[in-house]
Write a structure and sequence with these properties.
This protein is α+β, with helices and mostly antiparallel strands and 382 residues long. The protein contains ten helices and 18 strands. The strands form five sheets. It has a five-stranded antiparallel sheet with strand order 1-2-3-4-5, with helices on one face. A five-stranded mixed sheet has the order 14-16-15-17-18. Strands 6-9-10-13 form a four-stranded antiparallel sheet.
Length: 382
């Protein structure tokens, strides 16, 4: 079989479409939340369409297009075998299959054109925070009501500009306007100027095929996450800094500390908003923060209790301890799930643990109310 050099530049989305994978468009050029047809998600996978490059943060490696995906993700290393795999999946020698795949790609391009045409925020090539909602109703409902975050804790960080509820207009094809309310997590420089931000849906989306609910998340366009991460420094005399995978995990952790009667607002933290499973060097943004905060001596790595989280914590711990820092890995206990849902039977992150505690309290309260009603009824009967 003659070598087909064009296969080396095959766009990854064409390959994923042919396999029946699902994914989410963050914008017209960036994709995330890659999920296999069997429902298995690829944690922290991001793809840039214009560059045809991808990064699998949970695995700690990336590549170019479908060729490197087959080689690094699927483990097929022989160039001949990679080419045969691509020819088979893409229907290179099967005109009927190739036509069906081309139709899928055509529909995807049409969706991308609509997304670009009806973009929620006009893109002038520079970083801007999304417009802010005058209320925090949906933010409180999603984080306090659904996830069990303490309201005082949430309001504390809203007041400091680290988190807010957006109010983003989107013009539909029929020219009507609707508004999206997302949670926005802001990274600021030492002067307080916003330099980067991430978003997370407050209302879940449901996959039409699997029925599974998920909360899309991603970076705001032109964010400088290479140098800036969401962070809070308490101003107290403590020399300790806690690292989390997300701001929501940090809020959940602080809620749990408050429930234990601890001084929750004395904890300084940095949110990575995504991690690598195997750090080869200290991330630039964290290094910049540590250079600016010479008082920090102890660093707590409070990542998820799963393979990616433990890999990130242990590799980063080793790097930090080569310097002047005492690094401590502190993950949530693998508590069996009773009231929450996930792909694993055990809780893996601080948000899940906080939600589990919140729902347990609600369930206990419901039992107590029911028992009280029964006792009242028995007393009236007697």
């Amino acid at each position: 079989m003659p070598q087909d050099n064009s296969l080396r530049t095959t766009p990854l989305l064409d390959y994923l479409d042919a396999l029946g994978y699902r994914y989410q468009a963050v914008n017209a050029d960036e994709y995330t939340n890659i999920e296999a047809p069997d429902g298995h998600p690829m944690s922290s996978f991001k793809y840039n369409k214009s560059k045809n490059t991808w990064m699998y943060h949970a695995g700690g490696y990336g590549g170019y297009g479908a060729w490197d995906y087959v080689k690094k993700i699927e483990g097929i290393t022989s160039p001949k075998d990679i080419e045969e795999r691509l020819r088979d999946v893409l229907g290179v020698d099967d005109p009927e299959k190739a036509a069906a795949i081309q139709q899928i790609a055509k529909e995807r391009r049409e969706r991308e054109e609509l997304q670009a045409q009806y973009s929620r925020i006009s893109d002038d090539g520079t970083f801007h925070l999304p417009p802010q909602s005058p209320t925090t109703n949906e933010l409180r409902t999603a984080l306090c009501g659904r996830r069990g975050i303490d309201r005082e804790v949430l309001e504390f960080f809203i007041d400091r500009g680290i988190i807010y509820e957006s109010n983003e207009p989107w013009t539909r094809p029929d020219k009507t306007t609707m508004y999206f309310h997302n949670a926005i997590f802001v990274a600021r420089d030492k002067t307080g100027t916003a330099r980067a931000a991430s978003y997370k849906y407050l209302q879940p989306k449901r996959d039409k095929e699997t029925g599974r609910e998920y909360f899309p998340a991603g970076a705001i366009a032109h964010s400088d996450h290479q140098h800036y991460l969401p962070a809070y420094f308490s101003g107290s005399s403590t020399n300790m800094l806690c690292l989390f995978e997300s701001v929501i995990d940090a809020l959940a952790f602080l809620t749990l500390q408050k429930q234990k009667g601890r001084a929750w607002d004395s904890f300084s933290f940095v949110s990575f908003e995504g991690i690598s499973a195997d750090y080869k060097s200290v991330p630039n943004a964290l290094k910049q923060i540590l250079d600016e905060r010479s008082d920090i001596e102890r660093i707590v790595l409070a990542f998820d209790n799963d393979e990616a989280g433990m890999g990130a914590a242990n590799s980063l711990k080793a790097l930090l301890e080569r310097g002047r820092y005492q690094a401590i890995v502190y993950t949530p206990p693998k508590t069996p799930r009773t009231y929450t849902h996930g792909k694993d039977n055990f809780i893996k992150d601080w948000c899940d643990l906080c939600t589990e505690h919140h729902k347990a309290v609600q369930a206990q309260s419901a039992v107590e109310v029911a028992n009280a009603l029964v006792e009242d009824a028995m007393r009236e009967k007697n």
